[in-house]
Amino acid sequence: xxxxxxxxxxxxxxxxxxxxxxxxxxxxxxxxxxxxxxxxxxxxxxxxxxxxxxxxxxxxxxxxxxxxxxxxxxxxxxxxxxxxxxxxxxxxxxxxxxxxxxxxxxxxxxxxxxxxxxxxxxxxxxxxxxxxxxxxxxxxxxxxxxxxxxxxxxxxxxxxxxxxxxxxxxxx
Length: 172
Hints:
By secondary structure, this protein is mainly alpha-helical. 81% of the residues lie in helices and 0% in strands. The protein has one domain: Up-down Bundle (Ferritin). It contains six helices and no strands. Helix 2 packs antiparallel against helix 3, helix 3 runs antiparallel to helix 6 (143-170) and helix 5 runs antiparallel to helix 6 (143-170). The N and C termini lie far apart (77 Å).
């Protein structure tokens, strides 16, 4: 009888200890949510920056957009590899608010395009991305997700500084 109780106690203790643990390929919901949000954030940057490169935009905006396309495409590849390793399927499209931003940008030309791109995609989107990556770099349960967020954060902060400078040049 003692053996059964001890065995049951051991099993219950083991289950209690492992209840919050991650199984291989399975992430905590917060970590999976981060990966989804990071993917959508990057997609907005890539798509809006591709639009800026084709638009009637100023040289500084086109230069910034070229850098954003290159940097965010590189991060998107890393994010996709991480998500695949963790068994997470990333979204392939923008959320409705992001799509509305992209659609609005597509209607603009010249200085108005520059101003809105610098504000909406440059500053506002990067502020959200920095906050998202800062939070995950501190609180992600998965060490790989935390490392990805921590390693990507300095570049995002640099992008934000560049975007604030660009916004000043664009007259926002």
